[in-house]
Amino acid sequence: MTETTVVHLLRHGEVYNPTGVLYGRLPGFHLSDNGRAMADMVAKSIASRDIVTLWSSPMERAQETAAPSAEALKLPVVLDDRLTEATNVFEGKPVANDNRAFFRDPRNFWHFRDPRRPSWGEAYRDVVARMKSVIDDARAESRGHEALLVSHQLPIWIIRLAAESKRLWHDPRRRQASLCSLTSFTFDGDRLISVGYSEPAAALLKN
Fold first, then answer.
1. Cβ atoms of residues 35 and 16 within 8 Å
2. Between 130 and 171, residue with greater pLDDT
3. Burial letters for 79-115: b for 16+ Cβ neighbours within 10 Å, e otherwise?
4. Model pLDDT, residue 98
5. In degrees rounded to 5, what are phi and psi of residue 86?
6. How confident is the model at residue 137 (pLDDT cuts 50, 70, 90)?
7. For residue 174, which phi and psi values (nearest 5 degrees)?
8. pLDDT at residue 96 in the model
9. Chain-centroid distance, C-alpha 4
10. What pLDDT, on the 0 to 100 scale, is given for residue 132?
């Protein structure tokens, strides 16, 4: 007999970022009031699930997202660096989608030279390796139950692409990993059998 294990990847909630910078791994970026409400909503939606493991990226926004779930599930939050955000050379820069000057600045072109790696940050294959490692460890610890891992949009999306045998380079605007969404990997024993997606905080998402 094999056992079914589910590993949920929870993206953090909305961050207070009035200047619209790419915060990446920079310290000091916390959830907004709306982000905290998102985290509370997620906690309520998963409170009755059979989650026995709760791990989080060490970034403040991830820990703050994990906190309500930890309280609801009566579990400690274990910090794991493998769940952290990907590195990016543009950290601290205003790179909102409407900042066309940034993307047209010739000084940035060198960093855009290879979107398949990508050339502006951590290699996708390295993100896959660390995310697969942490998912495998969470699955082993939670065998027959469920685990909740709090991470970030890019790592979650990249490991999903890898799990679905899709190419890793992509248009960031087409990622399916909204704020406080759950990407759920279901295993039969050690074999991945499905990948699911849900948005328990959808009512609080802004257009």
1. yes
2. 130
3. ebebbbbbebeeeebeeeeeeeebeeeeeeeeeeeee
4. 60
5. -70, 150
6. very high
7. -105, 10
8. 67
9. 23
10. 98
Task: Give the Å distances, CA to CA, from 62 to 11, 58, 174.
Answer: 8, 7, 22
Structure tokens given for 105: 């600045």
Is residue 177 helix, strand or coil? coil
Average pLDDT over residues 171-180: 92
Contact 197, 183 (CB under 8 A): yes
Q: What is the mean pLDDT of residues 59-74?
A: 98
| Torsion of the alpha carbons at 33, 87, 129 and 61, rounded to the nearest 10 | -10
Beta strands (DSSP E) in 100-175 are 146-151
Say if residues 200 and 42 touch (Cβ distance below 8 Å): yes
Structural domain boundaries in the chain: 4-204
Which of 4, 49, 8, 6 has its CA nearest to residue 156? 8
pLDDT at 14 exceeding the cut of 80? yes
Of 97 and 77, more confident: 77
CATH T-level topology, domain 4-204: Rossmann fold (3.40.50)
The CA-CA-CA angle for residues 118, 163, 3, to 5°, reads 150
Query: Tens of pLDDT along 69-80?
Result: 999 999 999 999
Q: Helix 153-163 to helix 124-141 angle, to the nearest 10 degrees?
A: 80
Supply the pLDDT for residue 99.
63
Are 118 and 154 within 8 A, CB to CB? no
